UniProtKB/TrEMBL annotation:
Stored SUPFAM superfamilies: Dipeptide transport protein
Keyword Metal-binding: yes
Record GO terms (molecular function): metal ion binding
Keywords assigned: Metal-binding, Zinc
Protein name: Aminopeptidase
Family matches, as InterPro entries: DppA_N, Peptidase_M55, Peptidase_M55_sf
CDD domains: DAP_dppA_1
Entry-linked Gene3D superfamilies: Dipeptide transport protein
Active site positions, chain numbering: 117
Residues that hold Zn(2+) 1 according to the record: 8, 10
Length: 259
């Protein structure tokens, strides 16, 4: 069995502020968060292999893709890192059996969602595919579905796990924290979440036949409500159709073109 693990940083154990994610500057808190990220990733790799996976590929999906502490990574997996990608899931193809999402966050506007946003925390408000409002979990699921691969596991905060189940059904999830506001949460110790992630991933691998790919047949109408008109101006210059002051739209023929 071959699995692809896509990662983000906002939903990682103990991460609560954008300062930790390196959004504005790569300071001391960001460096600590990199270790937390690597720890969650290693737990997922351990769970995948103990569950029966024979090959594990992990992508560093946050920002420029250079967040893992390389020397601390589990040697049983291989890793995709670095910027300049042609798409958000390089290397993903029909040869994989499952996609796992580690450290994800809830879509923009989610009450109690830690660091909630969709793609951009500073420019996007809402994102729709054929009228279905979704966030990055939905985007990743559609891309996996393009290759007929199911998303079988999601970790993040409680709101993220609820979003994943609402979209994908009874998949395996692990809530590593529960948000009260965008930056305040009840968290679990990384020692505890390491165990939970490993166990959750292993369960998901063993339940692989229970899951189905998330597929919306093309054409796909992508609509984005942006935070400001100047951002919409920029999208219009990139030949998106302008719907109103802050909303743009385009129609694509493949899930690989939704971003």
């Amino acid at each position: 069995m071959k699995v692809y693990i896509s990662t983000d940083l906002e939903g990682i154990s103990g991460v609560l502020t954008f300062q930790q994610t390196g959004r504005d500057e790569n300071g001391q808190e960001y460096e600590k968060a990199r270790h937390l990220l690597t720890r969650d990733v290693n737990a997922a790799v351990d769970g995948a292999i103990s569950g029966g996976a024979e090959e594990v590929v992990v992508i560093d999906g946050h920002g420029g893709g250079f967040n893992f502490i390389i020397e601390e990574l589990d040697p049983r997996a291989s890793y995709i890192m670095g910027p300049g990608r042609v798409n958000i899931c390089p290397g993903l193809d029909e040869s994989f059996d499952a996609v796992l999402l580690v450290g994800f966050h809830a879509m923009a506007g989610t009450k109690g969602g830690i660091l909630d946003h969709t793609q951009s925390s500073t420019t996007w408000l809402n994102y729709y595919v054929n009228g279905i409002k979704m966030g990055e979990i939905g985007q990743q699921s559609l891309i996996a579905g393009h290759f007929n691969i199911p998303v079988i596991f999601v970790s993040g905060d409680k709101a993220t796990c609820e979003e994943a189940k609402q979209l994908l059904g009874n998949i395996e999830t692990v809530a590593v924290k529960e948000g009260f506001t965008r930056n305040c949460a009840k968290i679990l110790s990384p020692k505890k979440t390491k165990e939970l992630i490993k166990e959750g991933v292993a369960r998901a691998i063993k339940r692989i036949k229970d899951f189905k790919p998330y597929i919306i047949k093309p054409p796909l109408e992508i609509k984005i409500e942006l935070q400001n008109t100047d951002v919409a101006d920029r999208y219009e210059r990139m030949e998106w159709k302008r719907i109103d002051g802050r909303t743009v739209l385009k129609v694509v023929d493949s899930a690989l073109k939704i971003l």
